[in-house]
Amino acid sequence: MARRDPLEPHRPRHPLTGLPHDADSLFGHSFARPELLREALTHRSAAHERGRGRSPARRKALSNERLEFVGDRVLGLLIAEWLAERFDREQEGELGRRLAQLVSRPVLAGIAEAIGLPPLLDVAAGEAKAGVRNRATVLADALEAALGALYLDGGLDAARAFVRRTWKDAMIRQTNPPKDAKTGLQEWAQARGLPLPRYNVASREGPPHAPVFVIAVETGGLSGTGSAGSKREAEQEAAADLLGRLPS
To answer: Of the listed 49, 68, 72, 127, which one is catalytic?
Structure first.
């Protein structure tokens, strides 16, 4: 069960799942398989702690990483569908920039915070003290995992209703197609007389046919990271991450 900060108000929990009784209401769906939601809210640190003595593959299966994989694809589909309906005269490039911004880490983390996701996350005790529940990467991953659980339990209609409710404000604020993240970051740096952003490959993982690049970007003493299956996409993710951290 999720480890509760003693300073947080007590939230009654289900005796079987260990989830707060109001967890279902957060997603507007009564889970027929609540174990899916519990998995979605389990950070890998808690899975590792709970899975000591098990194989590495089994420990990974206990965390929300698999559901995050599903939720990422579901979110992309549902946002693309919504954008095509809402901006029926825009071309692929404009829609693509809108999509990239709406599924970016800063937007996901902000939505996760707004709906009250952090206290529900199951993390290891040490990680909880380090504030891992409030990290943007953790919140974004957990939100995608929860969407994956919602899709697997309730289907596309349940997932669509959740996305359209929780992304509504972000969608409305996006009056014009955003510039791509790298362009936006470059313009921000130039306007302040800073060096152009520098991108570096922090790591490369995965097999040759399905690599995952982790890119780090830095400008003005600030940095961001992004990961994707190509260097170009990872650079855009890194730029979007850094843009979300910049002062106005």
So the answer is: 72
Of these residues, 122, 127, 144, 235, which one is catalytic? 144
| Residue 144 annotated in active site | yes
The whole-angstrom separation of Cα 218 and Cα 197 is 6
Enumerate the domain spans of the chain.
23-173, 181-243
Locate all alpha helices (DSSP H) within 62-191, ordered by sequence: 65-86, 92-102, 105-114, 125-129, 136-166, 168-173, 181-191
The model's pLDDT over 36-80, given as tens digits with 9 standing for 90+, comes to: 999 999 988 887 767 655 555 555 557 899 999 999 999 999 999
| CATH entry 1.10.1520.10 includes domain 23-173 | yes
**Could you give the 3-state DSSP secondary structure of residue 245?**
coil
The yes-or-no answer on residue 72 being catalytic is yes
Residue 23: its pLDDT value, please? 66
Query: If we measure between CA atoms, which residue out of 185, 178, 176, 169 comes closest to residue 245?
Result: 185
**What CATH class is the domain 181-243?**
alpha beta
The distance of Cα 119 from the centroid of its chain, to the nearest Å, equals: 16
